[in-house]
């Protein structure tokens, strides 16, 4: 029965990760058209990358690998690459 609980937890975890990424994406993109007109595309994209990195470091890095070569601290947490 332990396997069933692990599978359920893993499924719930994936749903939480997907929901979090969707929320982050929505938040980042909600003001994009209005702001993009005022800034160059390259500068705006660079700011989005920095903000996204900050959010992932703050909310995801406790369990997930977020770098190119590091490993996840939680064995069931897939790396974000």
Structure keywords:
81 residues; mainly alpha; 3 helices; 0% strand; flat
Task: Write up what this structure looks like.
This protein has helices spanning 2-29, 32-38, 41-59. By secondary structure, it is mainly alpha-helical. The longest helix has 28 residues, at 2-29. It starts with a helix and ends in a 22-residue tail after the last helix. The model has no long low-confidence stretch (mean pLDDT 77).
Task: Give unreliable regions as ranges.
Answer: none
Order of helices and strands: HHH
Q: What characteristic shape results from the CA principal axes?
A: flat
- Count of beta strands: 0
| DSSP summary: helix tally | 3
Q: Work out the helicity level.
A: 55-70%
| Mean pLDDT metric | 77
Proportion of strand residues: under 5%
Oligomer: single chain
Radius of gyration: 16 Å
Major sheet size, sense and barrel closure: none
**Helix and strand composition category:** mainly alpha
CA-to-CA gap between the ends? 32 Å
């Amino acid at each position: 029965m332990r396997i069933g609980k692990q599978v359920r937890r893993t499924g719930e975890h994936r749903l939480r990760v997907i929901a979090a990424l969707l929320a982050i994406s929505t938040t980042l993109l909600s003001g994009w058209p209005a702001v993009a007109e005022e800034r160059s595309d390259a500068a705006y994209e660079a700011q989005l990358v920095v903000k996204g990195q900050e959010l992932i470091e703050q909310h995801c890095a406790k369990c997930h690998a977020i770098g190119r070569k590091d490993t996840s601290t939680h064995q069931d947490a897939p790396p974000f690459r």
